[in-house]
Design a protein that fits this description.
Mean pLDDT: 92
Largest sheet: 4 strands, parallel
Helix content: 40-55%
Strand content: 5-15%
Radius of gyration: 14 Å
Number of strands: 4
Length: 147
């Protein structure tokens, strides 16, 4: 596997309830103990999304124990952003905040344009299809970036 010298990755999005926990779970499944992986959001005002849990469970990725947290809470809990080699932002707001928080640090910041599935579909099947599409986008980005 080609991790490109990356030993720690932080995924971020707006609420740490859908995209970043999905990315954290997918990355942990693929790289397990090789890379330290966490996630955070700009805000912590939501809990983990049930559809995100469901579509990750389809791939044997357990998200129901995930506890959403913000960048601020992450720092308070001792997971300082300057301890990560790479911060991957999955939303424009988290990209802006990650760039601001990593000023003066060696952490690399990337933006992956990942669809927010929460506003798509009204029926359960439509919602699940939207979340699967987002999950698969994230998985493809991980494969492209890390091998």
């Amino acid at each position: 596997m080609k991790t490109h010298g990356i030993s720690s990755v932080l995924f971020s999005c707006d609420h740490n309830a859908v995209r970043s926990p999905m990315a954290e779970g997918l990355m942990k499944k693929r790289y397990g103990t090789e890379i330290y992986v966490q996630s955070a959001g700009v805000k912590h005002d939501l809990e983990i999304d049930g559809f995100a849990i469901a579509v990750c469970a389809e791939m044997d990725i357990e998200l129901d124990a995930h506890r959403a947290r913000s960048f601020d809470e992450m720092q308070e809990w001792g997971d300082a952003i300057d301890g990560f080699d790479l911060v991957v932002a999955l939303s424009p707001a988290s990209f802006a905040q990650a760039k601001e928080l990593t000023k003066g640090f060696a952490a690399e910041v990337e933006y992956w344009n990942i669809t927010d599935p929460t506003a798509t579909g009204t029926m359960r099947d439509e919602k699940l299809a939207s979340y699967r599409k987002t999950r698969d986008q994230i998985e493809q980005h991980i494969k492209n970036r890390f091998g």
